[in-house]
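notes to self, project folder thing:

trying the whole complex as one job this time. last attempt i did each chain seperately and stitching them together was a nightmare. two parts in total, labels are on each line so i dont mix them up again. if this works i'll redo the older ones the same way
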Amino acid sequence: MVHRHRTRSIGSVFDRSVREELRAMAGWTFGLAVYAFAMGAVFTSIHTNPLFDQIAKNYPEALKSLFQMSDYTTGVGYMRVEVVAVIAPLLVITFSILWGGDLLAGEEDRGTLDLLLANPVSRSRVFLEKFAALALGMFAAAGGLVLGLVVGSPLFDLKLGTSACLATGVSIALLALLFGTLALALGAATGSRGIARGLTVLVVVVAYLVSGLADLVTWLKQVRPFSPWYHAMAIDPLGTGWHLWHLVALLGVTVVIAAVGALAFERRDLST
Amino acid sequence: MNSTVGPPAIELHGVTKHYKGGGGVDELTLRVERGEIFGYLGPNGAGKSTTIRMLVDLIRPDVGTISVLGLDARRDSIEVHRRIGYLPGELTLYERLSAREILGHFAHLRGLDAEAYESLAGRLHLQLDRVVRELSKGNRQKVGLIQALMGDPELLILDEPTSGLDPLIQHEVHDELRRAASEGRTVLLSSHVLSEVAEIADRVGIIREGRLIAVEQVDEFRQRAIHLVDATFASPPTPEVRGALEAAGGTFETSHKVHLEIPSERLSELVKVLSGAEVVDLWVREPALQELFLSLYEHGEA
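result (full assembly):
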């Protein structure tokens, strides 16, 4: 079948990377918006029912700590547990690992990287443009979440602050970008999507447990600052708004990971 | 062949590259002059792609120096890439993009405009607006060739450019390469099929098991490509025919039977002579150039 393919022309590597992922990006963004909105809708039947507060109070401490459960019957407390603290970040992180792990390692695996890098563009430049595409994707997906929160809040009487919703979105975007960059860098350094994604998932889980259980386990409290989850979510952006230095810390670590990844990519033989 | 302008197009000196699983190249020293078409020949796995990918800085040598257009292949890779066109041996394109999008993308990276590939697409009869997924192998290869040829780079590095292409397209591609060479540009192309390379190259380098074992002028080599002919006649041929055959170097084993060894370009002449007699059996054996090469270089270094 011959079908005409009407197109806007593609310029940079960033351009093409975004274009190739556009549908997925739209899907994640829309999905997160719907998810946040739908969970908000459920809240109306919860905060009028005192039973839920009772149930929530009886939860094991470990679970309360992991899910940041405290005031289940307020809009903020409910949305924190059900959407913001764990599930939404995990969704955006999933997107970031899938895409980040594919951005360079996938091109190498499919065999398109040889042709691309024979152009007069440095490997670092290609890495940087892939990183920029990933960042755009993370902010788009987190933007969907923010939209769902902000639109749902007045409708379902969640009483979420708009600024706090934005702070939450930025926290989640930067958290996912950090892990996505790790997957990108590992893929760039090894050429293997499997290694890139697998190792990153491991890091995500360990970092999450460190941050989530630190309130219960004394020695974890000391290592908690090393967990990106702490800087993004444990500081509770939905309840307490902006924490600039924690966001700067996330971004700083991301930049370091990106720099190391780009360097490893520059120095390596590409596989056929 | 054109005169040499500036440094050679390609110069490898003592280049060794080994892989963990075996393979690679050993102490490769090679020089390709400006304006020539150089055929890089060897069986699969001999080290052709390894060499080519080092020229394009996709992989780096363990030891040795590589300069391309007088520039260091690694240190000056961006400048090198600006001035060369490259076609990988195993071409893979972005499946979901159209040929136009892909070529536009690479043209952008090279600072070229759409005209650079549109004229080539016209000459090679490629429909630009079809998605790569829908393209045949031949058309995909055309996309690869166009991106290598666009902007008229000074040096074309083509890894098996016509492999798997039908003869018609192969012919078109060869025309493009001859055109490039006639403009003083340089072409390095690899193949594992000699005839493919011999048709177009000025010189051929042969690589086996990672070692360059010979570099030959194709013209000189071609003259050695003789055909063995055995003809049997119903009755002894007329003196004129016999005389003509003997003049061509034929030896009569019996009065009915002649054996000749003649270069390929004289075959049609021979057929005319033979038509003057009643031939009952005719054997023409062409030692394929390939076999000839192999027999010449069977035992490693020449």
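what i see at first glance: The two ends of chain A are 32 Å apart (CA to CA).
need to look closer tmrw
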